[in-house]
Amino acid sequence: xxxxxxxxxxxxxxxxxxxxxxxxxxxxxMPIMVxxxxxxxxxxSAHIDAFVNLxxxxxxxxxxxxLYLLIDELSTSSxxxxxxxxxxxxxxxxSHQELSDEAKVVFNxxxxxxxxxxxxxxxxxKGYPVTLTGSLKQxxxxxxxxxxxxxxxxxxxxxxxxxxxxxxxxxxxxxxxxDLALNDVHEWLGTTEGVVATPHSQRSVAEIKVKLNNSIDxxxxxxxVDLIEGSLxxxxxxxxxxxxxxxxxxxxxxxxxxxxDAARRLQHTMNQAVHFDDFWLxxxxxxxxxxxxxxxxxxxxxxxxxxx
Length: 308
Ligand SMILES: Nc1nc2c(ncn2[C@@H]2O[C@H](COP(=O)(O)OP(=O)(O)OP(=O)(O)O)[C@@H](O)[C@H]2O)c(=O)[nH]1
Fold this sequence. Notes:
This is GTP cyclohydrolase FolE2. InterPro entries: GTP_cyclohydrolase_FolE2 (IPR022838), GTP_cyclohydrolase_FolE2/MptA (IPR003801). It comes from Colwellia asteriadis. By secondary structure, the protein is α+β, with helices and mostly antiparallel strands. It contains eight helices and eight strands; from the N terminus they run αββααβββααβαααββ. It has two domains: 238 residues, Urate Oxidase (Roll); 27 residues, no CATH class. Strands 1-2-3-4-5-6-7-8 form an eight-stranded antiparallel sheet. α2 packs antiparallel against α3 and α6 packs across α8. Bound molecules: guanosine-5'-triphosphate.
């Protein structure tokens, strides 16, 4: 490297002095090997944000290349797990000794899991948007896992209204008949005149964030997905045969929910999951009745924890 190259970051001072909360890079694209509990390590295509604070009010700027190269080393020679995420944050701060004492890194990626069909025994891939965030602020480490889980929700109000129409249609059809033949009713129920109305369902998304503590070695991505899908009961499906679709219809009918119901279910489940220090969740029902969404938000509610 020629010795005469200007080094603005080191040899100039700020035009206007001031400390900054975060300085760094956003949307760095890199392949990253991710270690998740119970899964083989796998490569994901990550979009990464990397930051340190700028504590020196006069310094021109941080050394972005140092942050980039530390992440690059993780990408090419290591695996992302709890320990390497913490080491990365330490590396950010150590590489900026006179400038920074806080660090933050955010990994966004799609994580694919094999998911089983409801009845047929088939399997298929489902991709879940995952965000892993690590920060070291005032010596305090925070590691957070957030995930989005799509599912189906059927409106309980619409179901009740549809049932009423079905009852009315039954009345209209059979009220005048003296001897009701079981076969006639059975056959009629199998027609669109019998089930004259169907409730509306919607693609819904549970967004959930959890604080991880250092008792965790590997990121519990699958565990979190299983908890959420097991609680809601109607996750969207990958491989579907007719028997799976029928079971999905039954599960939807037996798990009618407003966005409040879904949030309370997950709240209950997450309160039982003792090894997550804190949680935040947002339920989004992408309505098919309305053009807008029905939304509910809740947290564990611990002092100093997540805010709604
Ligand atoms: N701090 C800062 N750097 C930027 C920005 N935009 C681009 N860069 C570039 O990031 C590059 C890397 O900066 P440094 O990490 O200081 O590079 P370097 O001086 O070769 O590396 P060291 O010798 O380790 O300090 C420089 O070429 C900067 O111009 C910005 O907004 N802020």
